Amino acid sequence: DTAVSQTPKYLVTQMGNDKSIKCEQNLGHDTMYWYKQDSKKFLKIMFSYNNKELIINETVPNRFSPKSPDKAHLNLHINSLELGDSAVYFCASSQPRGTGLSPNEQFFGPGTRLTVL
Amino acid sequence: SQQGEEDPQALSIQEGENATMNCSYKTSINNLQWYRQNSGRGLVHLILIRSNEREKHSGRLRVTLDTSKKSSSLLITASRAADTASYFCAANTNAGKSTFGDGTTLTVKP
Lengths: 117, 110
Description:
The complex is a heterodimer of chains A (117) and B (110).
Chain A: E1 4-7, E2 10-13, E3 19-25, E4 31-37, E5 43-50, E6 53-57, E7 64-70, E8 73-78, E9 87-94, E10 107-108, E11 112-116
Parallel strand pairs in A: 2-11
Antiparallel strand pairs in A: 1-3, 3-8, 4-5, 4-9, 5-6, 7-8, 9-10, 9-11
Chain B: E1 5-7, E2 10-14, E3 19-24, E4 31-37, E5 43-50, E6 55-58, E7 61-66, E8 71-76, E9 85-92, E10 98-100, E11 104-109
Parallel strand pairs in B: 2-11
Antiparallel strand pairs in B: 1-3, 3-8, 4-5, 4-9, 6-7, 7-8, 9-10, 9-11
């Protein structure tokens, strides 16, 4: 069974379009993340949700809107896509350590390669 | 410059040799983790070291952490061709923020 799954795996779209990427985890974790990995392999956190509540929002344009309907799902909707949005987007989940929010091991999904033409 | 810088950016060694990668970070952390990424895949967790630990081992992996220098190193001993991948450190704060380094691309030649 896949622990963290993302759909779609590939997404090719035109500039200006709106698209969504879905993520689901079956690990029972409380925390989920979205990361963006650019063409130089730099991996940057975008959002983090803990029990459906937003806890990290890293200066991401408001064209990006995450939605967590329940703690097993964290979807990413992107409005008005731009060329610079082309990247691989990774979803991850983890269970916080102790009483704080610091993550234990993060489990990553396979990634969604977004290409904006 | 980004928090969680790594060096070297690229490392090429022969099978059987040891590989050492370094990572630096800028803020206080709860723990630091190392991940591996094969080409076209998601990241896979390798090892976690807590801020009050100095060294940790797991199989052929050895991680050190120096919180006074805000740096960590990952040593892979007796490397194999299958170790070829990119390796990332992730500095994790108490607030739940996870900052990844720029990564080291390791090539192990058979």
